[in-house]
Amino acid sequence: MTCHSKWIRVDPVKGSRTFANLCWACILVRGATGFLLVGISSCIGKDLIPGLPPSEQIVFIPQGIVMCFYGIAGLFLGFYPWCTVFWNVGSGYNLFDKREGIFSIFRWGFPGRNRRICIQFTLKEVEAVGLEIREGLYPRRILYLRVRGRQNIPLTRIGEDLTLGEMEEEAAEPARFLRVSIEGF
């Protein structure tokens, strides 16, 4: 939901708290837990996962140890997407303030000293709103600001799937507000 008035415009940016990331985190942790339980089952000689064939066929050395190793490694790998979802890394907003003459990008990062990422530019430095559209096997659609003397600043998430019409509308709104041109059509 975009919030704007005559002088101020705030565009929220979604972070990593998406359904896909949540699904991948669940799949990784569930699979890793299965590997770990099978490895532990082979060590103690009891079946810890009901419904599976008996783990008596798996010898603890070397197969059980390898299963435990994969389970522990998988839990560490599954912990990362859970953290990004919990902290909503990458979320934030883009603020355009005509009164102050500034454009601010605010994003949340990982916890620590640099958790809050805030970058400011003057609106005079903004030259255009651009669209980068690549079709094909790996389509890429990015809305960005072209700032004088700097790299292009993306305004949308990399994985955000928008139609061409939605991309045009997303580009037209800040371009109208900032009174700059649109490039990349």
TrEMBL record:
<dbReference type="GO" id="GO:0009535">
    <property type="term" value="C:chloroplast thylakoid membrane"/>
</dbReference>
<keyword id="KW-0934">Plastid</keyword>
<keyword id="KW-0812">Transmembrane</keyword>
<dbReference type="InterPro" id="IPR003359">
    <property type="entry name" value="PSI_Ycf4_assembly"/>
</dbReference>
<dbReference type="GO" id="GO:0009522">
    <property type="term" value="C:photosystem I"/>
</dbReference>
<feature type="transmembrane region" description="Helical">
    <location>
        <begin position="21"/>
        <end position="40"/>
    </location>
</feature>
<keyword id="KW-0793">Thylakoid</keyword>
<dbReference type="GO" id="GO:0015979">
    <property type="term" value="P:photosynthesis"/>
</dbReference>
<keyword id="KW-0472">Membrane</keyword>
<keyword id="KW-0602">Photosynthesis</keyword>
<keyword id="KW-1133">Transmembrane helix</keyword>
<comment type="similarity">
    <text>Belongs to the Ycf4 family.</text>
</comment>
<comment type="function">
    <text>Seems to be required for the assembly of the photosystem I complex.</text>
</comment>
<feature type="transmembrane region" description="Helical">
    <location>
        <begin position="60"/>
        <end position="89"/>
    </location>
</feature>
<protein>
    <recommendedName>
        <fullName>Photosystem I assembly protein Ycf4</fullName>
    </recommendedName>
</protein>
<keyword id="KW-0150">Chloroplast</keyword>
<dbReference type="Pfam" id="PF02392">
    <property type="entry name" value="Ycf4"/>
</dbReference>
